[in-house]
Amino acid sequence: ILLQTMPQLDTFTAIPTHNIEDQSIGTEEENDNDEEIFEIEESVTQRARLNDAKSDNPSATTRARDTLLLIATLAALLIIIIYIKNPLDPKTTTNNSGDGNDSSDNNSRSGIFAPLNLTYKSLPDPSTTLTKIAFGSCSKQTFAPHPQWETLTLNKQYTRPDLLILAGDNVYGDCVNDTCTALKEAYFDLGHHASFVQMVNEIPILATLDDHDYGVGDATKNNPHKDLARGLFFDFFQLNESGQYADRYGVYQAREFGDYDLGNLVQILVLDTRYSRDEFLDTDEHMAPGKEEYVPDYDDKSKRMLGDDQWIWLEEQMARPANVRIIVSSIQVLADGHGWECWRMLPYERDRLYDLIHGSVGSSVIVSGDRHVGGIYSKEVNGTLLLEMTASSWTHTIPIGAFDSNCTSSKECDEVDERRMFDLVRVNHFGSIEIDWQNLQIELALRQVAATPGVFNDDSGSVIQSYSLSF
Fold this sequence. Notes:
Strand content: 15-25%
Number of strands: 14
Helix content: 25-40%
Order of helices and strands: HHHHHEHEHHEHEEEEHEHEEEHEEE
Largest sheet: 6 strands, mixed
Distance between the termini: 66 Å
Shape: globular
Structural class: alpha/beta
């Protein structure tokens, strides 16, 4: 706007110039009247004086122009500095989509990832009866190809799910500076995978964050990048943080599908175990079995896995009736045999979750990720069987012997855990939940992401291990 006003300065200050001698001579030849000559000469003299004043002070226009240019430049620099410092502050930035995925107007989207032009399939209508849900975690965006997305959309062994849950570490982009360039690039890399682009167009998604897409390994509430990472998450998945996310510390959310009175209501509770989590207690015996990085903290009852606001929200949600309840935790809940990140490290918080589940209406199942191995776990909580299925990872599961060359079998390599029902899954995989509403059965299964090399018939999507639960 300032620049557009600058041409008017010339119009305002410029004075038409004439050749005084030519005008005087011409006038004398055409008219001998002394009075007219005087008036013309006086007019010419006044013009000449104005032109002389302008030539004596040529910087008047220049100073005005330079002042406006300086103001415009400083304003532009201020905007750039604010954007670089905090481009997606979750407390100030909003996207133009509704709660959940909304692909109704992707072409008009703003934000860092708008150039990707991703079109997300909208979540099912709340009245929809869900029968098949897939989930997984830990997808390294630079590992190509990504067969998991094609397995979900095109595979004959596993037909397309009604809903996909991304349980964290959806990209890997640990921040090394305040602008988290690596995390932004990670999302761009994922968004350029053709199979991912096709998948999100065909399968609705719910997602949460874990540490590597929160910008820091083993991220806690002290993560300095958590708000920026949260904003990038909203932007990439086209979520409206001014809706159900407004004033929330984290990315937790709840969804319900079906009708409780008809006996087919599924409630999905997606937790955020990073944004407000306290620090775990460091191990006193590094890499010892069961104490690899952390040990349970029985001394400090004040430590939180979830912030107070999220606990209040969770209590309210679990007071609602549901036929089947799926609780999504990015880190493991039931696992007891290792010293990596899990709810075991904050035992009072885990007991609090157990009590909530026991007091709720309906059958609860926990799904988790993070570990880079898969497994199915069970625990009896006050007379009720509670199941957890961990699916990790999509792209880089830990094979047998990766950290111990003397370890050659599951019996030797897997951590001892009485709650785990089978051997750990050590090929790339994802989890599936299939609900048989007629026979009141839930089947939990871990499935292959890709075909087995050398196998003639494509077995991607086939079941590796499974367990059925009546409800």
